[in-house]
Amino acid sequence: MIYDHGLLDELGNFINILKRYDKLYIYGAAHNQKMLAKYLDICGISTRGFVTSETLGDIAFPAGAGVILGLSDKYYNEAYPRLVTREKPIDVIFLSERAKHTISYKVTPRQPDEYNIEINLADHCNLNCQMCDHFSQLVKEPCFLDIDECERDLNRLSELSGGRLGIIKLLGGEPLLNEDIVKCLKTVRRYFADTPVWIYTNGLLLLSPRMEAFWTACKEYDCAIELTPYPMTGLDIMAIRRKAAEREVDLRLTEVCEKYSLKYQLSAHRLESGYAFVDCYQKNHCNVLKNGKIYACPMSAYIHYFNEYFNRDFRISESDHIDIHETSSFEEIAEFASRPVPFCGYCDIAHREFHEWKRSERLISEYI
Ligand code: SF4
Ligand code: SF4
Predict the structure, then answer these.
(1) How many Å lie between the centroid of ligand 2 and the Cα of residue 297?
(2) Comparing 117-131, 251-265, 341-355, which segment has the lowest mean pLDDT?
(3) pLDDT for 35-86, tens place per residue?
(4) CATH 3.90.380 correct for 6-107
(5) Domain 112-366 - what CATH class?
(6) Cβ distance 109 to 337 under 8 Å?
(7) Domain map of the chain by residue range?
(8) Separation of 353 CA from ligand 2 center, angstroms?
(9) Pocket of ligand 1 from Cβ distances under 6 Å
């Protein structure tokens, strides 16, 4: 499997081109173009405003101005001729449809029912894959969720979100290692009655006799099981499917991780490529709730395991998380998710690559 860096290459070129202009405008003034302006502002590029077909004739563009064609490609035939047939034509700067949509999607703050939260029920794992983005294979001592603290956090998040989120993902490490998992499911449901709850597991414990109460709880609290069948684990998929059908539990199989691990390449020094965060699938998607705070992603939330194991110092600052008990509105949480955090500077997305899946040898070369 090849990691597609085409978007990142395009954005790098795009930003470099924009730096040649000190007077930039965006053609279009709807949501996607406003999100493009927000993204450029994050990247340190200022724009002078929006141009539309109605306002185009009124603007006296200064010398050296450029206009970014921010509208969808379907408006190209309408917009482009207007810009280049003016008495004084101006430079028009293009962006692919993919880039326009990705930027808008990544920097748009989510509504509560579009906003996902991840909670580790156990930080450690019984499989220990290489390159785990939760650093689970590097956890030295078993570490379980503090349910009482999590209950306070869920209560607060429920107040802020009106009791409904996109998806609550319970994972780890391996969540089924947590012997209080039934209590965890019950607690989540107490505060989020209608939110989809998905439990991500490698499945190794699903058929264990001690999991009977877990299957009952999945049915009772309407929680789905997301099973990732890794190679060479000897999982009896048919037996697990039968079990789920018997217990009337929603079981989904995630095939995508079956044979590949993604190397999340960390850089020892913070990178200057502040535009790259929109090419990270975790951004504005894998928000981690941990100890009263929300982190941008598992990498930033659990980097302390990496630091402890390899004696490194990838820093987490106050700006890398948002404290839900000190936040007055859900909008602040959603806005936080839609912007890069300082830790993003350590992520060398341009060098992310897929490797064949295998168990971890706990080498730093799995990340650096
Ligand atoms: S099974 Fe999942 S949590 Fe466990 S080491 Fe592998 S990727 Fe990480
Ligand atoms: S720190 Fe930023 S770029 Fe790195 S994985 Fe997290 S969200 Fe993505």
Answers:
(1) 6
(2) 251-265
(3) 999 999 999 999 999 999 999 888 888 888 999 999 998 888 888 888 888 8
(4) no
(5) alpha beta
(6) yes
(7) 6-107, 112-366
(8) 15
(9) 125, 127-129, 132, 134, 136-137, 172-174, 202
